[in-house]
Amino acid sequence: MTLPHSPGRLGDLLGIDHPIIQGPFGGGLSSVALAAAVSEGGGLGSYGAHILTPDAITGLVTELKAATSRPFAVNLWVPLEGERSALPDRTALTAHTERLRPYYEQLGATAPAYKDLEALPAFDDQVDALLAAAPPVISFVMGIPPRRVIDEARRRGIVLIGTATTVDEAVALDDAGLDAIVASGSDAGGHRGAFLAPLRESLVGTFSLVPQIADAVSAPVIAAGGIADGRGIRAALALGADAVQIGTAFLTTRESGASDVHKRRLGTPAARTTVLTRLFSGRTARGIPNRFVRDMAAYEDAVPPYPVQNALMQPIRRAAAAQGRPEYVNLWAGQAAALAGDGLSAREYLAQLVKELPGRGDPSGSPRAR
Ligand SMILES: Cc1cc2nc3c(=O)[nH]c(=O)nc-3n(C[C@H](O)[C@H](O)[C@H](O)COP(=O)(O)O)c2cc1C
């Protein structure tokens, strides 16, 4: 179904002034300060909560409500079928942990105990805590939230955003009644969220994905992936998006929870190259290749699935970030990462984007003199 996109419908739905969403970051890279700064600036700040316990989620929403009176989003991952249930058998795991041993030893990190390898909070408990805490907006990735969640959110007046990587996923989210849909192109940084077709059939670039989703759904569309400045925003809006979701470029801002080694790589020529890899978490994600990705390339398909590989790698990732060693850190980045990264505050970066919106100020839409 094709519907005209009136410019303000998403702004009205979300209660924001500018069509700019700061994408959520899972894995500890979000911060309350970042989300609040973006919301206070008239965009929509987001916080990625997928590793948080239900209690932590309750506390998070209280903190966010105290930090901003404007709307904000909290994000959860919908689990893929069977994802959080089965631990691989110990023998199958041994060969793999042996491969990682040199990295643990080099960094002085400790491998997690077998029983801790699937230690993720249950989605149902997370989502119940989140609904009860009632943030203004909840966004989901990796799937369609259950019917009861959609109904309960509606009862509580919470706006729901879903994330699609293909047109089919967008239609499924639209049919399920999500209020707005992120069109997440394969350009985007971080984990891919494909949930209907195999990942390799779900890698559509933002420029191709956005207009097709805009034609196919009635809900407002949010373009994500490879957008870092006014030129990207203008292109996305011209393609039929109602707003944009920017991730990587917000990672470089002072308030983001990204490590210094990570921030320092973004916005440099090294960030012009990104790859999709399962090596850091067991789920495919886009980041800047480093020594770990190159050394372990032969095991891309062999590493255990998420969340087991994620738990095995966590001590390595954390120790490497703390020791300032980017060669072992998951340097998540989208394909426009090299455009980002002037070390601005989130408020300054958002103000720069707002100045570059269509009809406002600098017609080149470029943040830097080129
Ligand atoms: C480090 C990192 C973590 C992310 N974590 C999540 C997440 O937990 N949930 C989610 O919906 N999107 C997540 N994303 C996607 C972003 O919210 C956003 O859609 C994406 O980064 C946009 O593409 P860009 O990186 O090219 O700007 C993450 C992205 C990055 C870079």
Would you mind describing this structure in some detail?
The protein has 370 residues and is an alpha/beta fold. It has two domains: 9-84 and 120-256 and 342-355, TIM Barrel (Alpha-Beta Barrel); 85-119 and 275-332, no CATH class. The protein has helices at residues 9-14, 32-40, 54-67, 90-107, 123-133, 147-156, 167-176, 206-216, 230-238, 248-251, 260-265, 291-295, 308-322, 346-355; strands at 20-22, 45-48, 72-77, 137-141, 159-164, 180-184, 190-191, 221-224, 243-246, 275-277, 285-287. The strands form two sheets. It has an eight-stranded parallel β-sheet. Strands 7-11-10 form a three-stranded antiparallel β-sheet, with no helix packed on it. Helix 3 links the parallel strand 2 and strand 3. It starts with 8 loop residues before the first helix and ends in a 15-residue tail after the last helix. The model is unreliable at 1-7 (pLDDT under 50). Bound molecules: flavin mononucleotide.
Outline:
This protein folds into two domains: 9-84 and 120-256 and 342-355, TIM Barrel (Alpha-Beta Barrel), CATH 3.20.20; 85-119 and 275-332, no CATH class. The protein is 37% helix and 12% strand. It has helices at 9-14, 32-40, 54-67, 90-107, 123-133, 147-156, 167-176, 206-216, 230-238, 248-251, 260-265, 291-295, 308-322, 346-355, and strands at residues 20-22, 45-48, 72-77, 137-141, 159-164, 180-184, 190-191, 221-224, 243-246, 275-277, 285-287.
